Amino acid sequence: MEMTQTRQLPVAQQTAWEALNDTALLKQCIPGCESIEPDGDNAYLVALTAAVGPVKARFKGRMALQDIQAPDSYTIQFDGQGGVAGFGKGTAAVTLAPEGDATVLTYTVNAQVGGKIAQIGSRLVDAAARKMADTFFDRFTAAVSGSGEQGDEPGTDDNVAKDGAAAGEGSAPDEQNGETKRKRSWTAWISKS
């Protein structure tokens, strides 16, 4: 699988670089992320829960930053295991370029998947990867710009299951307009998918 995308971030390049290296912020923005723990210089152990089509699993893996050219670029090498669901491994080249007061982030991911995930077909795998990337960047952009509108917490993203049948949802009043908003946890969405 190969995926390339460009996103504009409404912050200066140095701010974007610092945010991309803030593990607490990344944990908050990565869909289904449970933990990101240091594992040596520029390396991290990651645990997350994800669903690709009918295959749902908890993945554990390692990600290492290489070819670091602060604040312009780095390469992420990743390798994750999801038990019987399969595995994923590959690289992601990330570059940042200033554009006025904003920053243009471009990434190219080259990945391989195996196991049950590979059996469901490349179209579903690609669609799930793009959806995860879009959710991550929506959350990341909101977090770095300070807007807080794009689902900073798990479960507030509009892409979460819309039929209201997800387990673990609750109601919370929306203080801005007096309506009741439903909040769903990512684990409830993932287990329902």
UniProtKB/TrEMBL annotation:
InterPro entries: CO_DH_gsu (IPR010419), START-like_dom_sf (IPR023393). It comes from the Bacteria. The lineage of its organism: Bacteria, Pseudomonadati, Pseudomonadota, Betaproteobacteria, Burkholderiales. Residues 144-193 are annotated as: Disordered. Pfam families: COXG. This is Carbon monoxide oxidation accessory protein CoxG. It comes from Cupriavidus basilensis.
